[in-house]
Design brief:
It contains three helices and no strands. It has helices at about 1-10, 20-40, 55-80. The longest helix has 24 residues, at about 55-80. The relative contact order is 0.16.
């Protein structure tokens, strides 16, 4: 039963791009932009600080996670419209 559900789901998954330097650049750029935007938050320096960046550890982890989500959305969107 479970295998038939998985097979049905696998048939409906759209094609996704393989990793390439273009995909890496898009995700890295989105992480960098989100990190810069996180500096504009109300409390970017609450908690333990990173030694080289003016942001806390929690803010950095949150910005990188959100940047990856945005980057993956951009990559999948560009793939669906045929630009990547």
């Amino acid at each position: 039963m479970l295998s038939s559900i998985l097979l049905a789901a696998a048939a409906s998954v759209p094609a996704t791009p393989e990793w390439s330097p273009t995909v890496g650049i898009i995700i890295s750029a989105s992480c960098f932009v989100v990190l810069l935007l996180s500096l504009a938050s109300k409390a970017p320096k609450v908690g333990p600080q990173l030694p080289l960046l003016p942001v806390s550890v929690a803010g950095f982890i949150g910005a990188m996670a959100f940047g990856h989500v945005i980057g993956i959305g951009i990559v999948l969107g560009l793939t669906n419209i045929g630009r990547l």
